[in-house]
Write a structure and sequence with these properties.
One of its GO terms (biological process) is proteolysis. The chain has about 220 residues and is mainly beta. It is about 5% helix and about 55% strand. The strands form three sheets. A seven-stranded antiparallel β-sheet has the order 5-6-7-8-9-18-17, with no helix packed on it. Strands 10, 11, 12, 13, 14, 15 and 16 form a seven-stranded mixed β-sheet that branches. The chain has a four-stranded antiparallel β-sheet with strand order 1-2-3-4, with no helix packed on it. Strand 2 and strand 3 (about 35-40) form a beta hairpin.
Length: about 220
């Protein structure tokens, strides 16, 4: 029987101080569907997915070297060995939300494409929501029958296919029939491009990116 490997490193997410809530959460390790967290400088504790700590931190997901936790409405993505915060905080009764930049200034947000959970990187330089073939295969997209195009990338021109996504969800926002690009290469994230961003309201304020529905 194969046993899951224990991955150890250190990642940190800093939460705003609210009452007696934790000041910070460190991701100390991942073991299968469990994560080792150090909350507010306390002793390491292991949480299973869905479990809530005494400090009010809930583990939402655990990956090979990542974890997603929730605290007071903020969804925080942690990565082993990386310092930074990736948060989507819901506001206005779920009609809007904000995302905090990570240590490198990138904006990540948890999302869904056709009902499947994906990690998204906001990219205002991408004309379309974009993904690599591995993501498209996981989503079950029949991209090989779609229109073939050539797309410019940082490494040169790469082939791809233009497809229509049934629905794209990012935190509180949900759009249907979103045009997207499947690249004939691999991307670590789904790029949240302008085919989504042009249909919502968004504004950057320093290290915070705020989103709202067009009718808000």
């Amino acid at each position: 029987m194969r046993r899951a490997a224990l991955v150890l490193a250190v990642g940190v997410a800093v939460f705003p101080a609210h009452g007696r809530g934790p000041a910070d959460v460190l991701l100390g390790g991942v073991f299968g569907s469990k994560a080792v967290l150090v909350i507010d400088g306390g002793l390491p504790q292991t949480l299973a997915v869905g479990q809530l700590s005494a400090e009010g931190v809930r583990l939402l997901a655990a990956g090979e070297s990542t974890a997603v936790v929730e605290h007071e409405g903020a969804v925080i993505h942690l990565r082993l060995g990386e310092f930074g915060v990736r948060a989507a905080r819901h506001e206005g009764g779920g009609r809007s939300f904000s995302v905090q930049a990570d240590a490198q200034g990138h904006f990540f947000a948890p999302g869904k494409v056709n009902g499947v959970d994906v990690e998204m990187l906001v990219d205002t330089g991408a004309t379309l929501v974009s993904m690599g073939r591995a993501h498209a295969d996981r989503l079950g997209l029949n991209y090989s029958a779609a229109r073939r195009v050539a797309a410019a990338s940082a490494s040169g021109t790469v082939g791809g296919w233009v497809v229509r996504l049934e629905r794209v969800e990012v935190a509180a926002l949900r759009l249907q029939d979103v045009e997207a690009l499947v690249l004939d290469s691999e991307l670590p994230y789904v790029l949240l491009g302008m085919s989504f961003l042009n249909r919502v309201q968004w504004q950057r304020d320093g290290r915070t990116l705020r989103f709202a529905r067009q009718d808000d």
